[in-house]
Amino acid sequence: MVLYSGEIGRHRIEVAERAISIANLPDGFHGFRIAQLSDIHFDEYTEPFFLERAVRRINGLKPDLVLLTGDFVTQGAFNFMVVKHAPHRCAEILSSLSAPQIYAVLGNHDFAFGAVPVVQALTGARIPVLLNRHVPIERNGDRLWLCGIEDPGSSRPDLNAAVPADPDGPVILMSHSPDYVDTVVQHPRGPVIDLMLSGHTHGGQIRLPFFGALVLPPMGQKYVEGLFHVEQLQLYVNRGLGTVGMPFRLNCVPEITLFTLQPA
What we know:
By secondary structure, the protein is an alpha/beta fold. It has helices spanning 2-8, 48-61, 86-94, 108-113, 115-124, 159-162, 181-184, and strands at residues 14-22, 33-37, 65-69, 101-105, 133-139, 142-148, 171-174, 195-198, 207-208, 212-213, 226-230, 233-237, 255-263. 20% of the residues lie in helices and 26% in strands.
């Protein structure tokens, strides 16, 4: 079990393909493809070759947009293993992503490590980081809005700044921590959000038969993996690529998600 979860299970990658139905989706975004990668945790346990493999898999999918939902590095119990070059080496590998547009948000480990060096590394690799702000994504004269917040579990998310008040198209929100969705749907701007993308939980990382996840993090204990409908909003929780605590994955393989937008 140790050999399987430490070498085989930890180094598999599943491409989970999901069709996402959105009301009033503009014609220009019918069939729009979004790839999500989360929780890389470079390079305490996530080796460069494994991240390079994930980048090649994403490039082979030919998405229109790639979204990176946080925890590029690790800061935790094994601080002595964290090296200062990790954000730059991670960003260097991610710079090989070939999608037309790529955006990121930070996770709790990124803020603990230091948001400034992580943001500098990503932006230096031409990957914009959305910290409580939004940008338009335009295609064939139509528009959707991409929003990103600071990690709810370790920083100060501001939905008023992140989400446009009167968007002229669908709204996608990136939030590293999924359990924040309960706050999102109660916020005055919550009703305009169509889809929220999160990571953080690793899907449990180690899941025992009949028992489920051994450990789940704060802000990731209610919505663990997969697609959820929370009032009017759709939430997807990606299982992530890397590991924390122990270099093991059992019954919970790393995930790249490929979303295809379609009209509801």
